[in-house]
Amino acid sequence: MHLLRLARAGFVFAREGVFGLVDPEALPPPARLGLRLARLVERRSTGTRSDRLTAALTRLGPTYVKLGQFLSTRPDVVGPLIARDLESLQDKVPPFDQKLAEQIVVETLGMPIAEAYASFGPPIAAASIAQVHKASVRDGEVLRDVAVKILRPHVADRFRADLSDYYFAARLAEKLVPESRRLKPIGIVDTLARSMAIELDLRLEAAAASEMAERTRDDPGFRVPSVDWNRTGRNVLTTEWIDGLKVGDRAGLDAAGIDPRALGQIVIQSFLRHALRDGFFHADMHQGNLFADRAGNLVAVDFGIMGRIGPKERRFLAEILLGFITKQYRRVAEVHFEAGYVPGHHSVDEFAQAIRAIGEPIHSRTADQISMAKLLSLLFEVTAIFDMKTRTELILLQKTMVVVEGVARSLDPRLDIWTSSEPVVREWITRNLGPVGRIEEVGAGAKLVGRIVGEAPALLGRAAMLSERIDDLTKDGFVLSPDSLRGIGEAEARRNRSSTVALWIIAALLAANLIWG
Hints:
Helix content: 55-70%
Largest sheet: 4 strands, antiparallel
Strand order of the largest sheet: 1-2-3-5
Structural class: alpha+beta
Number of strands: 10
Shape: globular
Number of helices: 21
Distance between the termini: 65 Å
């Protein structure tokens, strides 16, 4: 079955002319022959390369559309040209039947549609995974509008079948083409599968929206629709209805008196604030998922794709952005080495020289000509020369930044990305790498010391239990050899010494921090 389904997919790609996008010079001789044979069935087309690719993926169904959207974030896998083509891939399909949608709501929520909602309208938007309806609910005497997102029927079964084909193809590639192992094809499918698991359970999307709302509660100019948990389940998600304008509706924004330049700045600053402060960001911030309410606030929807980065990645992002802003190229280079992204056998000075080659040209241009996304793209190209391994979390961050910057520039073509970014970046660095951050690090160290001290009775308890077990064993006639007893004693001694040494080292470091920090 895997081979039949993959053969059909290959035929669709060949028929739509996708194999014409592949450079034959980059392939081994047997693959070039296969490429020539595949192109024999290619249909004549006047469309662009992007049209051919999107047509093939759309014909193959929702899983392939999602695969294309996912691969647009991985230029290291498909190449920068194809990645750019995939960025325009739209996920729009006809809606499914209204009665079927209502049936899914009843089955998921366990109540009649009239009991769940005061009114339930037709679909207003549809994609390959789900569609959205406008409805209303009654809270006492108050009637309020809500958005109801419903998963397509049987979509999970389709995704499971297609993902099993992807795993089969990935394992085959790693087995037959050793060079492909560098790109980790099985790991790519793993990542796609995890992403799809979240999108196919609307309770998880609801949780992401709830977490984002909690983290951004006090953020200026940004908010998230509230989740109606009483009307949310695996296949149904109900949220507050956003009575606003799409950020791409310039005429509507002007008519409503909303300043698009201020909104563009909110887009950039909100994204950076979420990535740096929280390490949790909306990873699908295109114009269709962003609205402006009547107060001029930015409202984000659709939390099926979220990004997370750890403290090391946040520091990396903040310091390289500030380093480029202030022309501290050596510091940018040092951050790469400190994070362990560039192997230590390379020269920091040579890497700083490469960074300067990227940074200097941006300072000779006006602010509206400088692309932060382009800069990061060039940065990752340079780091490849210095053996920087692919960091999937950073690639998703870069991809999101490309989209966010495009949205911001569509609102204000002359937006100064760097002036908008600097306050957020400096605030994070001051907060986390300045005196306040050092005090918090000392506090964290004190907590660790307290935890180790608190575990001391447990260590003694385990030693007592060991002694009792040995005593029981010997009473029953089982005698340990002198060598065994000596081994047990030495192991326990090493364990206790390690705990004691660790305790004193941490205490000494804490004292040094308090004295010299």
